[in-house]
């Protein structure tokens, strides 16, 4: 199904004009920054001892982050183009939704055309590719696995809902975690020069954040996703099955940290440090699936949980680095 944007941007009282720059910022979702702190998780894992942290390492981290911003902007812009073309955004941001929500989707609001959105997506992708190429060239280390990971990360990111449409073939949840993992591991490898099981665990826990507000969004978006054949878990199973799936993901987040501490992949104190995340995750689940069952409030809580988790992962990286350096 293909939908068409209204003839002009609308408000509750009639046409309005929004500056193009503002619409492009909305298209790039710069206010949703929860993947970008991945660079701080990676940085914390290599920063100590500080005396050995080279200027090239700092530039590598900075360039990678800048490239990440452009690549993610391209990814979400292409997602909006696909959602506009297949009608899923029209269903999820329908006539009964507040205008402020519609404006977050410039194609639905009519503040940008498809041509403008695609131009923005490919321009930001090109800039992101150039920045990541420069990152690899400047990096103090280039282990073979990073030379594979960085280009794969770039290509796969753009296929989320465009091109191969990964999220339309049952892999959305895996993608959300995998993106977070790669965004932590890639810059870490380019600076540290080696693989780390501890950083892998940190990357998975970082990626669990976007996953565990994404699955609540999917629960809210079931009608639109089903209409276009986007097979999220929420669409494929009943309400009880979806609640069990999200509960299992929430428990797995804690169990991964516990297993890492128990096996020595992470320090013994790691699971204790991350306990506030477990408590907040339980509260999020109760909000979404018990009592009033407020899915969208649970989704908003997920952003808070992810940000708390990110701060604790940064602290864990610094503490672990200090122990190793001592």
From TrEMBL:
PANTHER family: 1,4-DIHYDROXY-2-NAPHTHOATE OCTAPRENYLTRANSFERASE, UBIA PRENYLTRANSFERASE DOMAIN-CONTAINING PROTEIN 1
Coiled coil residues, start to end: none
Record organism: Streptomyces reniochalinae
Regions crossing the membrane: 32-51, 57-78, 117-138, 144-162, 174-191, 197-216, 237-260, 266-282, 303-322
Biological process according to GO: menaquinone biosynthetic process; vitamin K biosynthetic process
Alphabetized InterPro entries for the sequence: UbiA_prenyltransferase (IPR000537), UbiA_sf (IPR044878), UBIAD1 (IPR026046)
Protein name: 1,4-dihydroxy-2-naphthoate prenyltransferase
Topology of the protein relative to the lipid bilayer: Multi-pass membrane protein
Source organism phylogeny: Bacteria, Bacillati, Actinomycetota, Actinomycetes, Kitasatosporales
Pfam families found in the cross-reference section: UbiA (PF01040)
Metal-binding found in the keyword field: no
One GO CC term on file: membrane
This protein's UniProt keywords: Membrane, Menaquinone biosynthesis, Transferase, Transmembrane, Transmembrane helix
GO MF annotations, alphabetized: prenyltransferase activity
Subcellular location: Membrane
Pathway the protein takes part in: Quinol/quinone metabolism; menaquinone biosynthesis
Top-level division of the source organism's lineage: Bacteria
